[in-house]
Write a structure and sequence with these properties.
Layout lengths: L9 E4 L2 E4 L7 E5 L2 E5 L1 H5 L3 H9 L5 E4 L6 H12 L11 H10 L11 H13 L3 H9 L5 H6 L2 H13 L22 E4 L2 E6 L9 H4 L4 H13 L4 H15 L29 H11 L6 H17 L3 H12 L7 H4 L13 H13 L22 H16 L7 H9 L10 H13 L5 H8 L9 H8 L6 H30 L9 H9 L3 H44 L4 H7 L14 H6 L3 H20 L3
Parallel strand pairs: 2-4, 3-5
Antiparallel strand pairs: 1-2, 3-4, 6-7
Helix pairs in contact: 3-4, 4-5, 6-8, 8-10, 10-12, 11-12, 13-14, 14-16, 17-19, 21-22, 22-24, 24-27
Length: 629
């Protein structure tokens, strides 16, 4: 038997490892097909399992196979080096494997003082659990031996240590981080050319650890989030970590970031390899981890998650849960994120059925979920807003967007429009616009089908612009156009009457004007009709002024008529003035205008003719005045 002190090392020949002791091997240990040609004495003195195997066998050249050895041949080689007294190094990357291998080989202190199991345990507790970097590395390397690591409480202790460090100032843990922008000393001070400057940088960021934990497997990530939740870390921070993890391993979620920062924050002193992730399992795990909260960016993430789930074909339970979560906060969703393409064999372009189910969840949700508090994840969310009207506007825009699909059936449009109550839409302009787009994309629809769709519109809730457009829309059925015109006149009369009542109240000398809330709401609700009412008031004032002017002209005409009658009576009893002058022997002196020969006299105007001419001129003036009306 070869003493451990004379062993200089090990060398490999093909799939066999040999000890450089100069003595023939008396035991061969097979681990995952790799043979280790060793000596019994150093192994039996340290390993309880090997000692028991040797006791049970009487063969001189023993061959034994270690099934399911933790860490495989590489970890077994470390344990063998320890048994032979050779130098072996424990690191955060191999400590979990060595710890589990020592437990497998039963390398307790009863088989040798300061044995490998106690040495591994001390290194794990004194070095790994007090350092963020080492905890991450240890957890990432524990996947192959997860069952035995669970038995030894290694995973639980690492997760607990990480969750504790997340709750504390990261500058206290003694490792450099990229988040500070420059390298730090173990004490948290800035280093300049390797010299400790003493200056410390404090960071208020709460997402410095997102990138680091994203290298963990899905199972470990899930357990870490649950551990952090138990420690009382705020939901919005946990959701941020979950969203970061999901976007890293689900590339389809990259576009649904809703303006969040894309900076990568990680520990600078070590590198990690990304975990191998089953995307279906990841989506189902994320769905279980997400809290029942509401936020704009959170809802956008849920919609992106549902989109990827529809592509990958996850379980129906997971899809139903995502649709329910989205429905409970549909008022903060965006139109772009609701446009789910159809990934199965279907004629339509968009998954309208999915949106219909989401609306159903929105209407059937009795208790509204609360927003994140404080609203750091989504500062734009306003929980005091009216969710029903926001959803109605969103759905109207959604119908208008999908209406151009030539294969979309009319009943789908009707189901989407009627899924919300009447009170959700103060105006039906959005519905009218959506139906107009649908009619334009489906010119082959019959008049009956068009009328059935138009029945979902309340024409009394159309604005003046929508009414003006609808009254001239050749795509609408004639009966619908007549109804629009009828309600247009009704609304105009109602608005005019309401405005006149308000103006009469304003002109009254009584105390302060009080407009009935019902009438005020009616006027405000009619949007553009108040402009028409004001124009009619101006027209009414013009008509009053014209009426008074007509009265003045009539009085003037009557005065002129009476004067004309007097002049006619006074001249009817007298003959021509020239004849009277001849009778009395007087000769009239001709005027300058009468210097022409006698025919001009005979052709000159008589007093009656001049009076008739004046009358005609007055009449023409009167007619010209009346021509204004």
């Amino acid at each position: 038997m070869a003493p451990a002190g004379k062993v200089t090392g090990f060398h490999k020949e093909g799939n066999d490892w040999f000890c450089n002791a100069g003595l023939p091997s008396d035991i061969t240990v097979v681990v995952d097909g790799i043979k280790f040609h060793l000596h019994k004495f150093p192994l039996v003195s340290k390993c309880g399992k090997i000692a028991r195997i040797c006791e049970e066998s009487s063969e001189k050249a023993l061959v034994t196979v270690l099934e399911e050895f933790p860490g495989g041949p590489d970890t077994f080689l470390i344990a063998v080096k320890f048994c032979y007294g050779l130098r072996m190094e424990l690191t955060p990357r191999n400590i979990v494997m060595v710890y589990c291998a020592a437990d497998y080989l039963q390398m307790m202190d009863e088989f040798g003082e300061d044995n490998l199991l106690s040495k591994s345990e001390n290194f794990f507790h004194k070095n790994v659990l007090h350092n963020w970097k080492d905890c991450i590395l240890a957890l990432q390397s524990s996947d192959p031996v997860i069952a035995r690591a669970e038995k030894l409480q290694i995973i639980r202790k690492c997760l607990s240590a990480l969750s504790m460090m997340v709750c504390t100032d990261p500058s206290l843990f003694g490792w450099p981080m990229m988040m500070y922008g420059s390298l730090q000393s173990p004490g948290g001070s800035i280093l300049w050319n390797g010299i400790n400057t003493g200056a410390r940088i404090r960071s208020a960021e709460s997402d410095w650890w997102f990138e680091d934990i994203s290298y963990l497997s899905v199972g470990l990530f899930e357990r870490l989030i649950n551990t952090m939740e138990t420690r009382g870390i705020r939901p919005e921070i946990l959701v941020g970590a979950i969203m970061y993890y999901g976007r890293k391993y689900l590339p389809g979620l990259g576009r649904w970031k809703s303006g969040q920062s894309g900076k990568t924050r990680t520990v600078a002193s070590f590198s990690l390899t990304p975990a191998v992730v089953d995307q279906k399992v990841l989506i189902e795990t994320i769905e279980k981890l997400l809290p029942e909260k509401k936020g704009k960016s959170f809802c956008c993430f849920l919609l992106g998650l549902l989109r990827v789930a529809l592509i990958l074909g996850v379980s129906q339970m997971c899809k139903d849960s995502l649709e329910r979560r989205i429905g409970m906060q549909l008022e903060v969703a965006t139109l772009d994120s609701l446009l789910f393409p159809v990934y199965s064999d279907s004629d339509t372009l968009y998954d309208v059925d999915c949106v219909e189910r989401i609306i159903h969840h929105f209407m059937s949700s009795e208790s509204r979920i609360t927003s994140f508090s404080p609203p750091s994840l989504d500062p734009e969310t306003s929980p005091a807003s009216e969710p029903l009207r926001k959803v109605a506007k969103l759905i109207d825009n959604y119908i208008a967007e999908v209406a151009s699909d030539v294969n979309l059936k009319p009943r789908k449009i009707r189901f989407l429009a009627e899924a919300l109550p009447e009170s959700s839409r103060p105006l039906h302009d959005g519905l009218y616009r959506a139906l107009d787009i649908y009619f334009k994309a489906h010119p082959w629809l019959s008049e009956k089908e068009k009328e059935e769709l138009c029945n979902i519109i309340d024409y009394q809730k159309l604005s003046i612009d929508a009414c003006a457009h609808a009254s001239q829309n050749a795509r609408l059925p004639l009966r619908v156009v007549l109804q629009v015109l009828f309600f247009e006149q009704m609304q105009l009369r109602t608005a005019l009457a309401g405005c006149l009542n308000v103006l009469d109240t304003e002109s009254a000398p009584a105390g302060p004007m009080t407009v009935p809330s019902e009438m005020a709401g009616q006027i405000v609700q009619r949007d553009g009709w108040i402009t028409v009412v004001r124009e009619n008031q101006v027209l009414k004032g013009d008509m009053e002024s014209m009426r008074s002017r007509v009265g003045e002209l009539e009085e003037e005409f009557n005065k002129i008529k009476q004067e004309m009658k007097k002049v006619t009576k006074s001249h009817s009893s007298l003959s021509s003035p020239r004849l009277v002058a001849r009778k009395i022997g007087c000769k009239l002196i001709p005027r300058s205008t009468d210097a022409q020969p006698d025919p001009v006299d005979s052709a000159g105007p008589t007093p009656r003719a001049s009076i008739e001419q004046a009358r005609r001129s007055h009449h023409s003036r009167h007619r010209k005045s009346f021509s204004l009306f």
